[in-house]
Structures are given as structure tokens and as C-alpha cells.
Amino acid sequence: MNDKKGKLGLFMLIALVTGNMVGSGAFLLPSDLARIGSIGLLSLVVTIVGALSLAFVFAKMSLLIPRTGGPYVYAKAGFGEYLGFQTAYYYWIAVLVGNAAIVVAAIGYLDVIIPILHSPVAKSVAIIAIIWSLTIVNIIGVRFAGFVQIVTTILKFAPLLLIGCFGWWYFHPEYLVGHFNVTPNSNYHAFSSAIVITLWLFVGVESASVPANAVYNPQRNIPLATVCGTGLAAVVYLLSSVAMFGMLPNEVLANSTSPFAAATEVILGNWGKLFVAFGSLIACLGALNGWILIAAQIPMAGAQDNIFHKIFAKCGRSGTPVVGLIITSTIISGLILASTYLSLIDQFNFLIVVATVASVIAYFYTAVAEVIVIPKKPLSRKNLFHVLVAIIAAFYSFFVILCASKEVIYSFAVFVLFTIPMYAIFRHRKNKFEE
Fold it and tell me: Which residues are CB-neighbours of 194 under 8 A, at least 6 positions away?
């Protein structure tokens, strides 16, 4: 019997998926796309199709392989132990770096409300306070963390829905159609550049599948939450982004460091800036809360298979991997504090590129793994549909990897080679343990 007590229900899972997506990037997206032109909105549409195909992949794989670990266990099922091992470390790095990026963005928004955070000491204290407050929330238990996720998701949607619903009253079509490609590059180059930016918005599509053992009725709730959460985020992103392109001139939107504040000021007046800063801060905190939960679940799943140290599998009374939470939050704190010499924008841009590419490699493995795993089942018409969707998701993921810079691709190629001796050490330890 699947006991509901202490576990994540459907609405908590939807909040986890949507909340993990709608974070720091959502409030900067219009400015990032405006620097490319309205062609970026076409990239957003393509990314939505790719994200929905990935959502169907994770929904199906959660039914075929109902285990904690998400991309790690799916890659292992499709490709075997080595690529599973590699994916676990890829994905864990993506989550750690992504969490660091979210904290950096949160500090930027908090700085609008509390100007004293200009001080490096105050900034460092705020970083530690944010990370460890949400770590404590997760240590209390996944269900409490899920409740916090529901509250923050509702609050963060306020400014996005305000623009998406009421911004159309201030819409100027000429703003949208007059700046299709404002870069000096070709339309294809502009389009592919925007693809990488827009995917950051959907990193988190796999969130419901990762803590599978902590989910009530996972066979029903994980697929539903994955598809519904992704669809909800897609609708909000598309409505608010198109509205923003018609509310503000392109040059104003492209040069704004807080585009939603500028748009909200058109509707609400001068206090719109503080309203959006608060909404953005809540968005970051909600996303961070969900990602801290995910960050500890990956090494826990790996520890159960002996590819991470057994210490990551140690759980408290609530069933949460307490030691794993403490270790991962310590690493995140160190990542941010070690890079405080960079500006917030430089920190954020560097971290999200690394996190996005690391995530999309895990997505690519998962999509291809589904094509391998499904034929082991009776290949019905329904399963054939899922195979076709998985192929679309795989091609989309591969295209995003190709759109990344050469430097990023080179760095990850080096990491792939580094996982080979890491795996050799793991196999040696495992063989010795089995003797």
C-alpha cells in the first residue's frame, strides 16, 4: 500500500515541476530575447514543443522504470552501467550549478528591496541564509518542502500572469513586427542562439520523476504532474513574453535589467518595480527549494547503487537524505562564495550555460533510452507514439547541444573522458565489495 503520509501528492508535484522551471530565467527572458529580436519568440515556440516532448518522455519513463533517480536510472536502463554512472554525475553537477545560479539571481532581486546587500559581507551572509533556510525546510521532510513549493509557486505567478493577462491592453503590434532580427548575424544564427536561452526556462521538466520513492501514487501522479506542470509553464511563458514584446519598444526591453518591472510600471505605476522584485525573489526561492530537494535525491539514488558514497543514502526520521542535503548545500555555498569576485550578471550567465548544457545531455540520454527500452514491451500503437515523441525529444536535445558554444562543448568533452577513470575506480570498489 502506498501510504500518503509524508509523501508528495499531485498538486505538490505540479508545483515542484512548474516551480523548478519558473525561476530566475523567467523574469529576464524578455530582455534576453529582445537583444536578438522577435525571432526569439519563434525559438520559444520550438523550445515549448521540445520541452513538451521531453515531458512525455519523462512521463513514460516514470511508468516503465518507477525508481528514484530520474535521468540516472533511465540512462542506466537504456545504456547500461557506465552511461548511467556518467549521467548521474552530469546531472548532479547540473543541479548544483543551477542552484548556484538561482541563488545569485535571488540576491540580485533582494538587492532591490534591501540596498545594504551591495556590501560583499552582507551579500555573503544573505547567500548562506537563503541556502541553509531552504535546506532546513527540506530536512524537515519532502511533504513540508512540497507545501512550501505550492505557496511560492502561487506567489511567483502573480507578476507573470499580470503581464500575460492585462498587458494586451497596452499592446503595440509595431513593436513586435518591426524588430525581427536585431543582431548582425543570420536568422539561423539568431534563432539557434535563442534556443539555448529559452531551454533554461524548462530545465526542471524531469523534477517529478527524480524523487519517485517519495511520491504518493507515482504511477498516476508523476506522468500527470510532468505534462501538466510543463504545459502550465509553457502557457505562462508564451503569453507574458509576447505581451512584453508589444508593450515596450525593443530598445527599451533589450536594455532593461528588470523587464517585468518596466512593464508592470506601465500598468500599476511606480510601485510596480518593488512588486516585481518581490515576485522575482519568490520565484527564485521557490525554484531553489525544489532544486535543493532534487539535489539530494540524485546522490541518494546513486548511493543505493554504490556509485556515490553510502553516506548520501543516510536518511533522517522523515525519510529525507539529511547527510546528502548538508553535503550538497555546502558545495553550493562554496561554489557561490568562491565566485563572488565576478559581477552578479557574469556569475549568472556563466552558471546557467553550464547547468543547461549538463541538463540537456541527461535529457538526450533519457530520450534515446526510451527508444531502447520500449521495444522490450509489446510495441502497440500507443507505444509507437511514445517512440516517435522520444525521437523528436532526442533530436531537439541534440540540436540544443550543437547550439552551445565551442568552449562549453569542449569542457564537457573533457568531463566525459574524466568519467572513464572515475568509472574504473567505481568498478574496482564494486568488484572488491562483491568478492
Answer: 32, 33, 36, 39, 40, 43, 44
- C-alpha 170/C-alpha 268 separation (Å) is 12
pLDDT (tens digit per residue) in 197-227: 788 788 878 888 877 677 778 888 888 888 8
DSSP state of 36: T
- How many angstroms separate the CA atoms of 50 and 325, rounded? 31
pLDDT of residue 7: 73
Identify whether the C-beta of residue 236 lies closer than 8 Å to the C-beta of residue 157.
Answer: yes
- For residue 334, the one-letter residue type is G
Please provide residue 3's backbone torsions phi and psi, each rounded to the nearest 5 degrees.
-70, 130
Provide φ and ψ at 215, rounded to 5°.
-110, 135
Cell, residue 259: 523587464
Q: What are phi and psi of 316, to 5 degrees?
A: -85, -170
What is the 8-class DSSP label of residue 321?
Answer: -
Query: Are 386 and 63 a contacting pair, CB within 8 Å?
Result: no
The predicted-structure confidence for 111-146, as pLDDT tens digits, reads as follows 767 777 667 777 778 888 888 888 888 888 777 777
Give which of 318, 293, 357 is closest to 70, Cα–Cα. 293
Domains of the chain, CATH where assigned: 10-434 (1.20.1740.10)
pLDDT tens digits, 153-162: 777 777 788 8
Say how far apart CA 404 and CA 133 lie, in whole Å. 34
The pTM score is: 0.82
Reduced DSSP (H G I as helix, E B as strand, rest coil) percent helix, strand, coil of the chain, to 5: 80, 0, 20
Beta bridge partners of 8: 215
* pLDDT tens-place string over residues 281-305: 777 787 787 778 778 878 888 788 7
Alpha-carbon span 210 to 309, nearest angstrom: 19
The DSSP annotation for 102-155 comes to HHHHHHHHHHHH-GGGGSHHHHHHHHHHHHHHHHHHHHH-HHHHHHHHHHHHHH
